[in-house]
Write a structure and sequence with these properties.
Blueprint (H helix, E strand, L loop, with lengths): L15 H8 L6 H9 L8 H10 L12 H4 L7 H22 L7 H12 L6 E7 L5 E9 L9 H10 L4 E7 L9 H16 L3 E8 L4 E3 L8
Length: 228
Amino acid sequence: MENFKSIKNWQSDDRPREKFLEHGIASLTHSELIALIIGSGTRQLSAVDVGKLLLDSAQTPSDIKKYTVKDFCKIKGIGEAKAIKLIAALEIGGRFENFKHHKKKITSSEDLHNHLSQKFKPLKYEEFWLICLNQKLEILKTKKVSEGGISSTIVDPKKIFHVALEFGSSAIMVAHNHPSGHPQPSKSDDELTSKLCDAAKLLDIRFLDHIIIGTDEYFSYNDEGLIF
């Protein structure tokens, strides 16, 4: 009988971990991905062999998503601990997929405030943030574009729209904080908002709002009818 060949003795291209490090995750087969999760096989079967047995047990790979611990344990080389690892891996993959298809929407100044208020709460200096949105007003990207001192921060409109275009934004909102706690806009805030409105029109991007976040309240240019 041929001696069992440990994964450690395989050629590097045959070992899932080394193959991943050298060629990337996309280079791995389904059975090699399973091998990475379960970590080991049996004296007679490598982890990849166990992965192949698991795949062969189902009509399609997606059927494995329905397997219980008992179902996994029917496969030679898979016990309760490995079954739990596989179920956990499938669950987290499913959750991330669902998250991708359920993007957070920002449809009001209140939504925008709730989305950013925790980022600003501990700050003793100003930060300026950009929120890029698609046509459905779902968030594409939330990015800090500037930070400054206690009373002001320098914001370059070119940088804001460079980021907005980079992420294919159909609409944008911006926000910054006033560490003083008072959200009333300054003359420079008004001037910046006006520049952003004008630039957005030229680029055919909807400029929806600019809010200023204070300690217990916020100011919204849109709510005040100052976005045109």
